[in-house]
Each structure stands twice: as structure tokens, then as C-alpha cells.
Amino acid sequence: MDMVPASAEPLLHPEQCQLRPSDHRRWWVLVAAALLLMLLVTVGPLRPMLFGVPQSEPVALILLTAAQEKGAVCLDGTPPGYHLQRGSGDSSSSWHIHLQGGGWCGTVNDCSNCRMSDLGSSKFMKPIQFTGAGILSSDHLQNPDFYNWNKAYVRYCDGASFSGDAEGQAEDGTILHFRGLRIYQAVIDELMEKGLANATQAILTGCSAGGLATFVHCDDFSARFSHKVSVKCLVDAGFILDVKDISGQRSFRSLYGGVVHLQNVRQVLPKDCLTNKEPTECFFPAELIKSIHTPMFIVNSGYDPAQIRNVIVPASSAPDKSWLSCKDNIRNCNSTQIDVLDGLRTTMADALKVVKDKEDWGFFIDSCFTHCQMVLDVSWNSHNSPRLGNKTVAEAVGDWHHGRTQGVKEVDCKYPCNPTCNSQSPL
């Protein structure tokens, strides 16, 4: 779930490698709403009035054709790609690497379906707009701390959070390439040659499945630099929880189990975790953060609709009509259902206690019904942004990154306590 290619796709990619067919109609209704929001924000009459900057030129796709020789390919065997926008001024040696999200595929059939989209093939990837994209924006008013950095947006086309290294075979006999780890390595290698190696400061970020990838690769990214560099990691909407759904099953653990075993994700998981737990458990952020040493900031909603719809109330849990309405929009939830959703927030807060004493870490867990808050101007740093401690997401992240104040480590009160959530998109 992430950025908009220039083909006018919504900013949030559907978890289409994960959702069952019965969920698609509901998702695309929400996608249409997100697209309307994007049109109003980035190209409609509100854009000049609210932000005062024109639409920027699309950022071209750069394909890593040479990486194919190393087996760094998308699910369908096409070369992976990224978009690069050069920095300027006093940030010409500052680098921001963003890993795109877009769900996971844990079965041969699901991964085969992903081959027919930009989440599995570079044949469908187009140039993208950074305008209106929050932390990726070049608008100094909306993104004062990172607007003029070198920005690389890495396209997601492996279905395993840039972590797998295996092969499979589709029903039609064609080979499926599970090479997310090689893609990550190839992109970082090329960016190092293009100036990343000489960075004075660098940040690795990701949203949703890209956020999970950031957890996985954060320490590796930091270790890439031979000289002293300020390296930090920022994860948005990637703190996926290993909890039971409303039917009492850990259905999302089953999904992750499929990803881990089908795509051979084990090799990137923390060795200290693997000595005590099953590989699937070690793929969840609550375990990953115990082994990460690089400074990190975590942004998430305690009522993340992606987790509500796919972890708490998945289609496999056979929800009744009231639950279907609730997971579409939290305003439709009754008090009993809200109590269940409160458990998501509480579990997230408990899992983050292990980083409470890390001075160089921070987290911003709001109570908004929203997913991926750092890649949209409206939720990053504007009058519509959710606030904790009177800080927007952008202000909290910027203060943490630049050490201006003690890092924010806040978990919001229970829904619907935060009035700054009122204007948030239900996506």
C-alpha cells in the first residue's frame, strides 16, 4: 500500500497479493475514494490554494537490467526498478531510500496473480509523482526536513517484503522468481555507486509491506557505510501484529507462514529469534525490533484499517454484516466491536515497551482509522494531520531525526478520543 504511479493509481496500493476475491469489490470502492482525494489534492483546484506549489514532473523509472544476471528480478522475471530524484543545496549529500509496499503473496496462485500487476512485474510500472507524497514531497512547506534530499523510491514486485530468495512454478508451468532479497541488494548496490556511499546522513523508510522490509533490512542498510554516517530507519503502518482474529484463529500467521516458507525468507530473520521461535513468528515486527540496533521511529495507527480488515476481521473469519460494516468504517462499529479493536491498540502498545528505554528510538501511535500516513501531505504535515502531544507526524519524525527535542514515544488514547483524526481518510 503505497505511492501513486503516474497511471493515476491511488496512493495506497491494495493488498491484492493477499486479499481473497470476495474482498476485492469492497477494496476498489475505497480505492476510488482515495483516487478522488488524490485528484483533489494534487491536480485539482485545492492544490494551489492549500499548498501553493505546482504539480511536479513525473519521476522516471530506472530499471536494473544488469541485475538480472544476478537473479535480482520481479516475480515474472522482469528487471526490478526504482525512481531517483536528486537532492539539492545543503542536502545534496543526504539520502532517503523508500521501500514501496503492496501486500504479500504466500501461495503459488497468489504470487502468480501478482505477475499481472506492477506488484509482480516491471512491465506495468510507470513514472510516478512525488507531489503530494508527504515525506517524499519536494514542497518545503509540507516537508521541511526532507524536501531537498536525494530520494529513491524502490518498487515492490516480489511479494515478500524484499526478503525472499527462491523459485517456484506457476500452474501454467512458468517460473516464479522469489528474489526480493536480491532486488534490495541490487538497488542499494547501484545507489551506493550513484552517491549513497558518500552520504553524510541517510534514512531508510517504508510503508506497510515496505515497512516490514525496513524492519528486516534496517541494520544491514546501516552496516553498508564504511565511514561515520547518521543512519536511521522510519517505518509507517508496518507494525503488523500476530494476534487472533474474531474467530479465534491466527489467520495472518498462516499467511506469513506461507510467505516465509514459499519464498525462503528465513535467511534474513534474526538468528537470536530463530533459536527460540519458529521462523514465521520471527517475521513479525514485535520480534524483529528486539534485534535491531539502528535508531528507528515507528508510525502506526492503533486502529489501522489494513490490520482490522486482514488480521482482526479477515474474510476467513466469516464475519456477519455488522462486522463487514465495521471494518469498512470504524464509525459503524458498535461498542462491543470497538472493545475488540481496542485490543489491537493495547497489544501494539505492549509490544513497543521493549524500545521505551532506547533513547534514539521513537514511536507515534495515533488512534486514527488510517493506513500509511507519511506518504500523503494531508496526513503528514498539514492542518489535517493527526497530532500527538501537539505535534504532527512530520514534526514528530523531524524532531526525532534531527535531535531537536527528546523523541516522541506516545500511544494515543482510545478511539474516538483524538479530534485531529476527524478528517482522516478511512483507508
How would you characterize this protein structure?
The protein is α/β, with parallel strands linked by helices and 427 residues long. The chain has a single domain, classed as Rossmann fold. The protein has 14 helices and 13 strands. The strands form three sheets. It has a nine-stranded mixed β-sheet, with helices on both faces. A two-stranded antiparallel sheet has the order 5-6. Strand 11 and strand 12 (391-392) form a beta hairpin. It is globular, with a radius of gyration of 20 Å. The model is unreliable at 1-15 and 19-54 (pLDDT under 50). It is found in: Secreted, Cell wall. This is Pectin acetylesterase. InterPro entries: AB_hydrolase_fold (IPR029058), PAE/NOTUM (IPR004963).
Keywords:
disordered N terminus, 9-stranded mixed beta sheet, alpha/beta, Rossmann fold, 14% strand
| Major sheet attributes | 9 strands, mixed
Strand content: 5-15%
Spell the H/E element sequence.
HHEEEHEEEHEHEHHHHEHHHEHEEHE
According to CATH, the homologous superfamily is Alpha/Beta hydrolase fold, catalytic domain
CATH class: Alpha Beta
CATH architecture: 3-Layer(aba) Sandwich
Instruction: Determine the number of helices (DSSP H or I, runs of at least 4 residues).
Output: 14
Strand order of the largest sheet: 1-2-4-3-7-8-9-10-13
Tally of strands: 13
Rounded to the nearest angstrom, the distance between the terminal CA atoms is 10 Å
Structural class: alpha/beta
CATH fold field value:
Rossmann fold
Helix content percent band? 25-40%
